[in-house]
Design brief:
Chains A, B: Its EC number is 3.7.1.3. The structure is a homodimer. By secondary structure, chain A is an alpha/beta fold. Chain A has a 7-stranded mixed beta sheet, with helices on both faces. In chain A, strands 11-12-15-14 form a 4-stranded antiparallel beta sheet, covered by helices on one side. In chain A, strands 1-3 form a two-stranded antiparallel sheet. Chain A is 34% helix and 13% strand. In chain A, helix 5 crosses helix 6. In chain A, a hairpin with a 3-residue loop joins strand 14 and strand 15. The first copy, chain A, is globular. The longest helix of chain A has 27 residues. The first copy, chain A, is built from 12 helices and 15 strands. The interface between A and B is large, with 96 and 96 residues.
C-alpha cells in the first residue's frame, strides 16, 4: 500500500492526500485505531461484514479459556457469571442502541433472533395475518419469514408482502391486516438509512408492530430505539461492533412487551426457574425469556472484549466521522472515477439517508473487487454488480479513503481486473 | 487432595488404593490425562456437565483469533474454510456416533438443534399428531416440544405423550398416531442407558420416527446411529467431548432423510446457494440444510481443538474403562457408605444399561455436594435429591474414584455438610 501520494493522484477535487492526513491528525476518534490489529499493507473497508480484531481480545479470550474454563471449570457458571452473560453483555450493548437495562439479550445468530422476535410480534396481533418485509432485506430475513409463515400458518395462512425502495412503498401495503413490519435500518447493499422514528410511527399508526434489523447500523451510528418507541429489534455484533467471527446476535424488546411476548423457541435458558428442572415451560419474566440454550461462551468472550472499546466511544462523534468518511469517498469517486469509467454510486448522497458504507455499481464488480483485494484494499462484492466499501470510524482513516480510491483508480486505469485470475468462481462471501 | 491412602480408607471391600493405582499404571488410556489441564487439588467428576480443558486448546483458539481473524479478516471465510466449518467439523464428530461423512452438521444450542430435528421429523409423518417423550428427559427437550406443539399445532393440535422408566412405557403409548419419539440415550439424572438399536426398531415398527438426544452419551460410549438405522439425533459437545463452555451442538440426520426433511429454521447458511442472495429460500441438498445463521467461530475453534484428541481415541477401550470406573465407584459406595448412611444409587447396576455417570440419592444432596466441592471433589447436584458424578475415561483415574469416595465418606462421617454455609440458595448449575 502506497503511503506517499502516488503519481495517479492527479485529481479534479480540491482534496489531496495531505488534506486527508490533516483530517486524521485532528480526528477526535483517531486514537481508537491503535486499539485494533490491522494487518500490514491492508486498507480494510469490510468492517461492515467482519469487524477488525481489537488488540486486547486475544488476551481476554485466553483468560476466559485458561482461568474460567480451565481452572474454574463448572464452577464458573456461577463464579464467573457465565449463566447471566446473555443478559449482562446485553446490558452493555443497550447504550449503543437506545435501549434500557434489562431490554437486550444475546442470541445465537441474527437469523434465529429474528425468528424469535417476529414470532412473538405476530402472536401479539392475533387476527392480523400479513407480514411486510423489504425485498432488499438481507436474504436471511426473508428466508426466516418463510419459516414463520410455514410454522404459524397452520390455522390460517400468513401472507408476506414485499416493499422496496423503488416501490411498492410501505404506505402502499399497510392496512389493518398487517401484523408485523420487518425492516433493516441500513440496507446491506445500498447503505440506505431508514428514519427509525418516522417509519416506526407510520407502522404503528396502522396498528402493526415493527421489528428492526440493526445489523448494518449498530455501531455505525447512534440508534435510539426507546425514543422511537419501537417494538422489537435484532442485530449482529461481528460487523461494526467487532465481536469476532460469528459473535452472538442480540435481541431487543421494548419492556412494555416483555410480559405479553411468547417466545417461539422455549429453551431452558429462557425458563423462569431453569434449575428447578420442571417438566413444563414457564417463560422468564423479562427479556431473558428470549434465551434458548447454552450460550457459546468463547464467542461471548470475544464480544465482551470488543465492548470494552465501545464503552469509551461517543456515538455522535462516531456518526460525524462516518459521514465525513463516506462523503470523502463519494466526492473522490465523483471527481476521479465517475465520468471516465461511468462508475455510479447506489448509495444515497443525502447524509441523513446514508449508513456507513458506499456501494458502487460495476458490470464486472466481482473481478474489480478481487483485483482491489490483491492490492490490499479489502471491500466486498454483492451480486449482481455492486462493490461495497464499509467505513468504520474507529479504525478507518481519511488517508485510507484517499488511498483506496487511488488503488481503485489504478485498477480501473490498468484494467488489471480483466485478467482471468479475477474471474468469478465458487463461493463468495 | 490426599495422594496417599488416608486413615478413613478402612474398607470392607477387597479393593484398596494401591489396587487403583495399579489399574492406572496399566490403563491403555492413561496417557490421555496429560492432554488435559486439571487444576491442582481437584478431582473433577463433572465432565458430563462441562468437559475439562484440553492442553492445546488455548494455543489453537489463539491462532484462530490472531491469524484467521486478525490477519485473514474477511478473507478467512474462504481461505480458512470458515464457511464450511459446521459441515467439516461435523464430519469429525461423525465417527464418534456411527454417522457417515456428510450426515452431521454443527448447530447453535442442543435446544435449537432438537427443534430443527423434531419439526423436520413431524413433517415427515403427516396425519400423525402425537409426539412421545420421556418425563425424565433433560427439561429443555420437553420445553422445546412445547414450542413444536405451539408452532405446528395451528391446523390440528399436536399431542405430547410422556413415558418414564417406571411407566407408562414406550409400548403403552405407541400407536399409529405417533409421529415422532424423542429419547435421550443416557438419562441425565440416573445414567440409565437405552439400547439404541432395539428402541429404534420398536419405534419404527409403529411407523414413527425417532430423534435421539446424545448429550450424555456422545464421547461417553460407542454409538452407532447408522447400524441402528436411526432417523435423527442431536447432541452437545461441551460435556464428554470437551469442546468448551457452550461449544456448538450437532445434528445428525440419516442420509436417506436429507431430501425430504424440511428444516424449521430456514436461515441463509442452510440455503442451496447462499451467495446468490435470492429472495426465496431453497434448502441445501444435504445435511447443510439444517444450518441457520453464521456459526460462532471462536466456540467452533474450541471444539476443533478437542476433536484433535478424539481422533486418537479407541471408543471400545473408552467404554471398557468407563464401565470399570463406574463399577468401582458403585462397589466402593456399597462397601463403605450404603449401610451406614443409607446411601442409594439410582443408576442401573447392569453395565449394559449404564452410561458413564452415577447418581446417589441423599435428602440433603445439595449441601453434601457443596461440602464435597469445598474439598475439591467436583460433581453436581440435580434437584430434588441427587448428587451426580460423571466419569470421563480420558482424564479420570481409578485413584480419583478411590479418593472421591474417601472424601465423600469423610463428609458424611463428619457431617460437615450440616454447616449453614452449605445450605441451598440462588441459582444452581
Amino acid at each position: 500500500m502506497s503511503t506517499t501520494t502516488p503519481p495517479s493522484a492527479t485529481t479534479r477535487t480540491a482534496l489531496d492526500r495531505a488534506t486527508c492526513e490533516a483530517l486524521d491528525a485532528s480526528d477526535p476518534l483517531g486514537s481508537f485505531r491503535d486499539r485494533f490489529v490491522l494487518p500490514e499493507g491492508v486498507i480494510y473497508l469490510d468492517g461492515n461484514s467482519l469487524g477488525a480484531l481489537p488488540r486486547h481480545t486475544p488476551a481476554h479470550v485466553q483468560r476466559v479459556i485458561t482461568e474460567e474454563w480451565g481452572t474454574g471449570l463448572i464452577r464458573s457458571w456461577n463464579d464467573a457469571g457465565w449463566f447471566a452473560k446473555p443478559r449482562t453483555v446485553g446490558d452493555r450493548i443497550a447504550p449503543l442502541i437506545g435501549a434500557a437495562e434489562g431490554e437486550v439479550v444475546l442470541g445465537d445468530s441474527t437469523s434465529a433472533s429474528l425468528f424469535q422476535a417476529v414470532v412473538a410480534a405476530v402472536r401479539m396481533r392475533p387476527g392480523r395475518r400479513v407480514i411486510v418485509a423489504e425485498r432488499g432485506n438481507f436474504p436471511t430475513d426473508l428466508y426466516m419469514l418463510e419459516a414463520v409463515q410455514e410454522l404459524l400458518g397452520g390455522g390460517e395462512p400468513l401472507e408476506r408482502r414485499l416493499i422496496a425502495d423503488d416501490g411498492p412503498t410501505l404506505d402502499d401495503v399497510l392496512d389493518d391486516h398487517v401484523a408485523v413490519v420487518v425492516l433493516t435500518q441500513v440496507d446491506y447493499r445500498t447503505g440506505r438509512l431508514h428514519d427509525l422514528a418516522e417509519v416506526t410511527r407510520r407502522v404503528q399508526a396502522a396498528g402493526a408492530l415493527v421489528v428492526w434489523d440493526l445489523c448494518h447500523s449498530a455501531g455505525a451510528l447512534p440508534i435510539d430505539l426507546n425514543a422511537a418507541w419501537a417494538d422489537f429489534a435484532v442485530g449482529c455484533t461481528y460487523k461494526y461492533l467487532n465481536g469476532g467471527p460469528g459473535s452472538p446476535s442480540f435481541l431487543w424488546a421494548a419492556s412494555r412487551h416483555h410480559a405479553a411476548a411468547r417466545p417461539a423457541l422455549t429453551g431452558w435458558h429462557g425458563h423462569a426457574r431453569p434449575f428447578d428442572f420442571t417438566v413444563d415451560y414457564a417463560p422468564a419474566p423479562g427479556i431473558e425469556r428470549f434465551r434458548v440454550g447454552t450460550p457459546q461462551l468463547l464467542s461471548v468472550a470475544g464480544l465482551e472484549a470488543s465492548l470494552d472499546i465501545w464503552d469509551d466511544v461517543d456515538l455522535e462523534l462516531l456518526r460525524e466521522k462516518s459521514l465525513r468518511l463516506t462523503e470523502l469517498f463519494l466526492s473522490l469517486v465523483d471527481a476521479r472515477l465517475a465520468e471516465r469509467w461511468g462508475i455510479v454510486s447506489v448509495t444515497p448522497r443525502e447524509s441523513s439517508r446514508r449508513g456507513s458504507q458506499v456501494s458502487l455499481r460495476h458490470d464486472d464488480g466481482y473481478a474489480v473487487m478481487q483485483a482491489l483485494i490483491e492490492r490490499g484494499v479489502i471491500g466486498d462484492f454483492r451480486a449482481p454488480d455492486l462493490i461495497r466499501f464499509g467505513f468504520t470510524p474507529l479504525y478507518t482513516s481519511y488517508a485510507d479513503v484517499w488511498d483506496a480510491v487511488d488503488v481503485l483508480h489504478d485498477v480501473l486505469e490498468t484494467e488489471v481486473w480483466r485478467e482471468p485470475r479475477f474471474a468469478r468462481r465458487g463461493t463468495v462471501t
